[in-house]
Amino acid sequence: MTVSDGRRERKKAQTRARIQEAALDLFASQGYRETTIAQIAARADVATRTVTLHFPAKDDLLFADDPFTAESLERWLRERKPDTTLDAVRGWMHATMRELDERDHDSGVDPGLIWQRRALRARLLMADDDLRGRARAGYRDLELPIAEGIAEDLGLPADALLPRLTAATVVTGLREIYVTREGQAQARSAASDLSPLVDEVLAFAEAGLRGARPRPGA
Fold first, then answer.
1. Are 91 and 81 in contact (CB under 8 A)?
2. Which of 107, 146, 147, 180 is the most exposed, fewest CB within 10 Å of its CB?
3. Is the DNA-binding keyword given for this protein (predicted)?
4. Pair 8, 97 in one domain
């Protein structure tokens, strides 16, 4: 990649981020459904077509570029040691959170801004039926590899109740962090302040696994 290509990609990324910031601000102040693409373009100081080139659908403004992807989780799970699925999930969460903090620090952004934005995004998703449905579909993409890993740890089929229940507990707990009283209080600084809540979710799931007794032949 040439220097000019690199500069062009950075400018493109900055424009994309500015559009998402504008969209979040407007969604928060006047509502997701009440906000138009033209309003977002005006707030971001770009053409309407620029918004739709980056985000073809309005809900993409909330779902695109999420760093907590199923693909990155699956890489952590593939590289885990035996019987350490929940440890791998914990490591994935902490590593991704640190990367986000470092990215904001390197760009001169307030380290807590991304967590405030993610908390706002979570509230917007929970407030709209259609957005909530799309979010749940994405959560299932995270639940399935976790369930498969836990099943392998326990010597159970991937569709057995205990692995699926534990995976759903983990993903739901991690998702709920942003909208809980504790998460709202901590989402004003850095990832290190949210990390204990991640550990609390994983500890809850681990306690459930220890207390459960897999049924032979399940």
1. no
2. 107
3. yes
4. no
| Residue of 218, 85, 78 lying closest to 156 (CA atoms) | 218
Q: How far apart are CA 180 and CA 122, in angstroms?
A: 10
Looking at mean pLDDT, say which of 25-34, 93-102, 121-130 comes out highest: 25-34
Number of domains, the chain: 2
Write out pLDDT tens, residues 4-35.
667 888 888 889 989 999 999 999 999 999 99
- Give the pair of three-digit tokens for residue 108: 């001169």
- Write down which residue in 62, 81, 113 finishes a domain: 62
DSSP state for residue 180 in the 8-state scheme:
S
- Rounded CA separation 207/17 (Å): 39
> Both 72 and 14 in a single domain?
no
Same-domain status, 43 and 142 = no
Q: Is the dihedral of CA 141, 146, 151, 152 positive or negative?
A: positive
Write the CA distances from 86 to 2, 42, 107, integer angstroms.
42, 44, 32
Residue 83 three-state SS: coil
Tokens 């990832």 belong to 191
Angle at 80 between CA 76 and CA 86, to 5 degrees: 80
Domain harbouring 197, CATH code: 1.10.357
Q: Which domain holds residue 137?
A: 66-211
Q: Which residue is associated with the tokens 């995976």?
A: 167
Any domain includes 216: no
**pLDDT given for residue 1 in this prediction:** 52
Tokens 């403004």 -> residue: 61
d(CA 42, CA 148): 46
